[in-house]
Amino acid sequence: EDHLQLEYKGAKLKLNYVWLRDHCRTGDSINHLTQQRMVDSALIDPNIQPVNVAIDEGTLSITWPDGHQSEYDLEWLLSNTYEGKQHLQGTLEPLLWNLETLSASPSPSVSYQDYLTDDGQLSKLLHNLLKYGFAFVEEAPVTVEATLAVAERISQIRETFFGRFWCFTSDLERHDTAYTAEALGAHTDTTYLNEPAGVQVFHKMEHVGEGGDTLLVDGFHAAERLRQEDPEGFAILSSVSVPHHYLEPTIHTTGVGPVLELEPGPCKELKLIRYNMHDRACLDTVPMEDVSRWYSALRNLTRYIRDPASEYWVTLQPGRILLTYNWRVLHGRSAFTGRRRVAGCYLPRDDVISRARVLKVI
Amino acid sequence: EDHLQLEYKGAKLKLNYVWLRDHCRTGDSINHLTQQRMVDSALIDPNIQPVNVAIDEGTLSITWPDGHQSEYDLEWLLSNTYEGKQHLQGTLEPLLWNLETLSASPSPSVSYQDYLTDDGQLSKLLHNLLKYGFAFVEEAPVTVEATLAVAERISQIRETFFGRFWCFTSDLERHDTAYTAEALGAHTDTTYLNEPAGVQVFHKMEHVGEGGDTLLVDGFHAAERLRQEDPEGFAILSSVSVPHHYLEPTIHTTGVGPVLELEPGPCKELKLIRYNMHDRACLDTVPMEDVSRWYSALRNLTRYIRDPASEYWVTLQPGRILLTYNWRVLHGRSAFTGRRRVAGCYLPRDDVISRARVLKVI
């Protein structure tokens, strides 16, 4: 016997004794300010057995051979074990959308002044961003400073080799596709980094000309269609890591990961989509005998992404700042004429999620 | 037949036709400045067959049904296919070390002035960093500016919620273990971020007191011992993602990934070690029936990490700046008395590797 069995709220928990000793919540086993572990996991006796076990009023109490007393709230056990988690619902479920879903929902937006001064409006923005995968801040001053203020209200900026802040024009300063006037199909950004940027902030500061509308597609909606309709394709896209790259004379980065990356653990939720036809590098991570199945899965996923029913087109007026959750929502644009200037920056996903947690949005 | 077979330099390549069309190196299939793909992978006919194939002077030439001509250098095919890569050696092999190995090798260091002005010395620093997992810059001014100059010579800084630059003292400004005067066992940093920091820059600016030496341990050396001596343990630590977290009243980040993360592809090289007993959060990503094997593997890995033969202790004098490759080399410190101030920052792994590629260090 290396575990104790417990049933709580329908979950059957088999609690391994080493795990229990390692996760003791009491005494000097944990720093209660930081939740940092003070137990040395490697020094726990692999054959440890409790000398006493009691359950009383929602608390599991254990006495260990050295006299140490541990206590565990049963609710806490439910939230923090592989088996227990399967019985929980997240506090904020993403709303996977297509054009029809969005037509029935109000546009997720907050106004600039309220957003900057009112934590409730910041929470609403983060809620929108995590529920829909995108959100708007309206009525912002058409300045770089205001765009930065919107970004830094959430977290520090994620600086890349583009700098802290970028400005796309059609002036072809760089050779990357983003800096042309061509149409860009729906894609995610920075697939050429090991961890793609979490949130992208876009502000169209100026456009004198035609076209240049912004396309949004919910990558998780497309991926869930694939999971339903081509489970084998979903399995290969979520298990095989593929490389992406960015090359300039002074830059050569690579990012390698699955097109559909899943959360670890029992629920297999989507964590991240990497979808960028241009930046995908040589497919050298798949044995040639599996290559054909991989391309077949990519074709199916692409069909769902390019389905006109998936496409949400918006016109970004100066003053309307768009934030996309780049781990989920793809963006693109129609071709344009004239001078068009879009400024923006990236935010690190960890810190955006941290902010949402601290504000109890999730 | 969906592929053509080719033998080159001992590698048997089975080249799938869709893969070949997708990886065409000629004409308008690729942007030669950025190596961005101009082919739409999803639109390639799944049953595509060449109308002509020829191999001449190290080049494979294919004519496709629509008349498009593709050419592939055979060397390029060797470097960019799953099967071909297995026959290649990296240009810079990491030297996995223990104390004995290091005693036989010169200490990897460059001098501050040369490093700042001479690209050859920058290359040497990057070579040291990627070969040993750590490197020194000597004779630096004992200032924040000089420390930043050493960092920014390589790439932009990776800002975290600690800021762009941090300074540890024993003044207990924060509650995290790093900010105490206690001994810290060998660990990697920022396991509580989805992507841990790539490189850590340390500069001990001041110490009036005893102790406070710096410990370095090659995590990949320990991991390779585990791969040899406990293959099942290596398999579980490299396949199971485990969560880590950081908590303060205004911060709550999590990072989830395997203790031993491997490169995708055929060679199963180590990519990244996450090893932090304090910051590891609740192990809720492993079914309870596998938990016991996971802890057993962690114990074995820990034994190799804490083996005194693995430990390289250094005294950091002010002016001697240490860079560690945090994806590989663990650091720790002995307890100390008195006032001790260590300043430093993180660099993003992608950009460090990019710099090394551009300088042809790797």
From TrEMBL, chains A, B:
NCBIfam families: carnitine_TMLD. Belongs to the gamma-BBH/TMLD family. GO terms for molecular function: iron ion binding; trimethyllysine dioxygenase activity. It catalyses: N(6),N(6),N(6)-trimethyl-L-lysine + 2-oxoglutarate + O2 = (3S)-3-hydroxy-N(6),N(6),N(6)-trimethyl-L-lysine + succinate + CO2. InterPro entries: AlphaKG_dependent_hydroxylases, GBBH-like_N, GBBH-like_N_sf, TauD-like_sf, TauD/TfdA-like, Trimethyllysine_dOase. The lineage of its organism: Eukaryota, Metazoa, Chordata, Cephalochordata, Leptocardii. GO terms for biological process: carnitine biosynthetic process. This is Trimethyllysine dioxygenase, mitochondrial. Its cofactor is Fe(2+); L-ascorbate. Residues 109-346 form the TauD/TfdA-like domain. Residues 3-77 form the Gamma-butyrobetaine hydroxylase-like N-terminal domain. Pfam families: GBBH-like_N, TauD. Gene3D superfamilies: 3.30.2020.30, Clavaminate synthase-like. Pathway: Amine and polyamine biosynthesis; carnitine biosynthesis. Keywords: Carnitine biosynthesis, Dioxygenase, Iron, Metal-binding, Oxidoreductase. Its EC number is 1.14.11.8. It is an enzyme of class 1 (oxidoreductase). Converts trimethyllysine (TML) into hydroxytrimethyllysine (HTML).
